[in-house]
Amino acid sequence: MCELLALSTSEPAQLTFSLKTLASRGSATGGVHDGWGVAFYQGVDVALFREPLAAGDSALVRYLETQGPCTYLGISHIRHATQGSVAFVNTQPFVRELGGRTHSFAHNGTLRQLESGTMFPLGGHHPVGQTDSEYAFCALMARMQNLWATGSVPSLEARMVLLTEFAADLRRLGTANFMYSDGDALFAHAHRRIHDGADTAEPPGLWMLQRQRIPAEPSTTHEHGVAIDATEHSALLIASVALTDEAWRPLEEGELVAVREGILLATQQGMR
Fold first, then answer.
1. Is 104 exposed, middle or buried (0-12, 13-18, 19+ CB in 10 A)?
2. pLDDT in tens, 92-128
3. Among the four 70, 108, 148, 271, which has the fewest Cβ within 10 Å?
């Protein structure tokens, strides 16, 4: 399956993503090789890097692991193609502009008959590629349109309500783990995933780790898939699998969380 990783910190930090390690830990065979991408937020915009090839074969990944830009929020995705060709246009995270901000989205799972129903109108947002993930993101942007019409950041409560309903609709069509950010907050929704040795998808779909004011130890954490280089900060990590030996919390099936500056702001358990 695809692998997701997001980090939120209390201050801009040097975040280095060991995407090759994340892929090998998240896949039973280490064979996730259909593309990778990472979005580093820079204010209301993002520095976006993507390639339709294995992270382990990428010189750009090796560069980002040591020279990635400073950021307070990052989302990464390693692709195992289930819909759409192995091509740049189908690599995640996807980004769109809405309300003068860059919104980003990454999804893990397969959504059946997404385009054939009436629950996900696109409005003026249209996919560039062929994946169900990008289609879902465009449908989310259409739902968000009214909230962002004033150009100001909507309330966290309004966004949580909309995203809870959106996630519930996605779960009716298949596996719906996703990460989404509007530059103000990070939202993550957990559903199910295929775990090692299993034939069917089961919870947990995502894991979360809270670190608060702990000096970074990049030499230790980098070996497990992610390093955070800073003096002291609060940080919250969300990933498809637990990446270190620390006390990661499995998110419940249907749980939606909102995070800002490394702090958990809200959590909502969706109806199944």
1. buried
2. 999 999 999 999 999 998 998 888 878 899 999 999 9
3. 271
What are the chain's domains?
Answer: 3-269 (3.60.20.10)
Q: Environment class of residue 235 by beta-carbon count within 10 Å: exposed (0-12), middle (13-18) or buried (19+)?
A: buried
44/241 Cα distance (integer angstroms): 28
Token code pair at residue 251:
């998110």
At 10, give phi and psi (nearest 5°).
-80, -15
Distance between CA 129 and CA 36 in Å, rounded? 15
Amino acid occupying residue 182: D
User: 19-26 and 59-67 helices cross at what angle (nearest 10)?
Assistant: 110
pTM: 0.90
pLDDT in tens, 160-213: 999 999 999 999 999 999 999 999 999 999 999 888 777 788 999 999 999 875
Cα-trace Rg, the chain: 17
Residue 251 main-chain phi, psi, to 5 deg? -75, 145
Alpha helices, DSSP H only, in 27-177? 59-67, 132-144, 156-171
Q: For residue 129, give every residue at least 6 positions away whose Cβ sits within 8 Å of its Cβ, in sequence order, or none.
A: 84, 87, 89, 90
Tell me phi and psi for residue 105, to 5 degrees: -150, 135
SS3 131: coil
The structure tokens listed for 176 are 């719906």
Query: Residues 6 or more apart from 127 whose CB is under 8 A from it?
Result: 134, 135, 138
